[in-house]
């Protein structure tokens, strides 16, 4: 797939009102979905997530059409306080985004920066600069984190969209977000919350909320906060704001107490997920796969590797391509089997796979009560890397991190489908 340098094809009439980073490179022409985003008065409303963003980092004041003050980096506490005092466009409920909200605006098909520049203009990105890193409101609270990260906060680097944990005393930039406006129609792609129900101060995480001087943290809003207060109505079960239902081999609902199930429906996102087994069969937890996608329109410029490691999955036969241990062949086998009565299974994109991450736990970073046998390892997404066409994006369900890996590496897979 050809890579394109900015300027980009833009479906909204914004090109003349912005500067575009001359360094940005995209896998494909970048097009703004006019049905997804509404832009008015420097606000970006996302119809799929029901979030409204202020388009400049660090509440950079608009000078005509330009954002300024990108170098005004702050500590985490300073960023929380800066957003808390903002009233803009008649709204005074601005806050820092959670790590999942922040990553919902990342444009993984681009880098330098990994943002849609028609929505978030004037993003000047340089290697190793503090302002490339953006704070979330999500503290790292898992008790099993290494000591170097136990008191940190999740951030995203706009260089390529990679997330990590850094100390709260570090300097970084920030975006402002708010919920709504609420529309009468259902949100097309609701975000799962993070699972975080505890807060932090400048020295300690895992504190009860609120913490004076550190208001506006992840645990104080959203589905997790409602669940902690006993105010969230669920169809099924799951930790904090997650809402899962177990499904049998035919795709029928099962009670939460069931000891055997084949799939899980996420009642909030509407996605249905494969459940791994420990029986040596097609869905066995130990099986691994190389990344392979022969579709030139979606593989980022490189199809990957069909048969790089041999017998690392169930049913492998070197003389039959349909049995190869790659992501493409595995999807075809699962659809032929008809897992949970369906034949439209696919590899999830990076955002869909991240929706399962529970940031309150690690080893694994997922609700094991609904997703048993999850390996403490990397899982492939369908999203190719913009920086290197021989790499694709993956999620680490050991620690909730994400990165790009060589498509010939062998990793785990969890398939997804839409509910009907």
Quick recap of the structure?
It is built from 5 helices and 19 strands. The protein is mainly beta and 420 residues long.
Task: Supply database-style keywords.
420 residues; four-stranded antiparallel beta sheet; mainly beta
Total E-strand runs: 19
- First and last CA, distance: 32 Å
Please state roughly what percent of the residues sit in beta strands, choosing from under 5%, 5-15%, 15-25%, 25-35%, 35-45% or over 45%.
Answer: 15-25%
Order of helices and strands: EEEEEEEHHEEEEEHEEEHHEEEE
| Parts with pLDDT < 50 across at least 5 consecutive residues | 6-20
Secondary-structure topology with pairs:
Elements: E1 4-5, E2 25-26, E3 37-40, E4 43-46, E5 51-54, E6 62-63, E7 66-67, H1 76-84, H2 99-103, E8 110-111, E9 133-139, E10 152-157, E11 162-167, E12 177-179, H3 222-228, E13 244-247, E14 263-266, E15 271-274, H4 327-337, H5 350-354, E16 378-384, E17 391-396, E18 402-406, E19 416-418
Antiparallel strand pairs: 1-2, 2-8, 3-4, 4-5, 5-12, 6-7, 9-10, 10-11, 13-14, 14-15, 15-19, 16-17, 17-18
């Amino acid at each position: 797939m050809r890579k394109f340098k900015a300027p980009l094809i833009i479906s909204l009439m914004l090109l003349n009102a912005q500067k575009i980073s001359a360094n940005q490179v995209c896998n494909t022409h970048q097009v703004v979905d006019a049905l997804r985003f509404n832009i008015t008065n420097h606000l970006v409303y996302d119809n799929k997530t029901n979030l409204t963003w202020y388009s400049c980092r660090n509440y950079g004041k608009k000078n005509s059409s330009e954002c300024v003050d990108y170098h005004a980096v702050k500590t985490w506490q300073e960023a929380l306080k800066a957003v808390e005092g903002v009233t803009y466009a008649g709204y005074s409920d601005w806050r820092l985004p959670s790590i999942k909200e922040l990553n919902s605006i990342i444009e993984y098909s681009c880098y330098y920066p990994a943002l849609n520049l028609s929505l978030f203009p004037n993003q000047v990105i340089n290697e190793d600069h503090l302002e490339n890193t953006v704070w979330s409101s999500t503290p790292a609270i898992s008790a099993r984190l290494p000591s170097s990260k136990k008191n940190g906060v999740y951030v995203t680097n706009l260089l390529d969209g990679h997330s990590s944990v850094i100390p709260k005393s570090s300097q970084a930039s920030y975006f402002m977000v708010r919920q709504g406006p609420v529309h009468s129609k259902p949100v097309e792609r609701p975000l799962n919350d993070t699972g975080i129900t505890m807060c932090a101060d400048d020295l300690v995480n895992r504190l009860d909320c609120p913490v004076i001087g550190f208001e506006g943290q992840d645990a104080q809003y959203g589905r997790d906060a409602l669940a902690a207060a006993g105010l969230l109505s669920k169809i099924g079960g799951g930790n904090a704001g997650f809402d899962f239902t177990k499904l049998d081999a035919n795709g029928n609902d099962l009670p939460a107490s069931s000891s055997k199930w084949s799939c899980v429906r996420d009642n909030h996102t509407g996605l249905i997920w494969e459940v791994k087994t420990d029986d040596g069969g097609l869905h066995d937890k130990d099986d691994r796969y190389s990344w392979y996608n022969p579709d030139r329109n979606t593989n980022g410029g490189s199809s990957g590797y069909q048969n790089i490691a041999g017998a690392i999955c169930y049913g492998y036969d070197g003389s039959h391509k349909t049995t190869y241990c790659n992501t493409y062949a595995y999807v075809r086998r699962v659809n032929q089997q008809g897992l949970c009565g369906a034949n439209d299974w696919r590899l999830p994109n990076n955002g869909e796979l991240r929706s399962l991450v529970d940031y309150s736990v690690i080893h694994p970073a997922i609700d094991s009560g609904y997703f048993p046998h999850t390996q403490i390892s990397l899982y492939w997404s369908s999203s190719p890397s913009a920086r290197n066409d021989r790499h694709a994006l993956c999620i680490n369900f050991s620690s909730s991190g994400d990165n790009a890996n060589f498509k010939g590496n062998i990793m785990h897979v969890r398939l997804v489908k839409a509910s009907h």
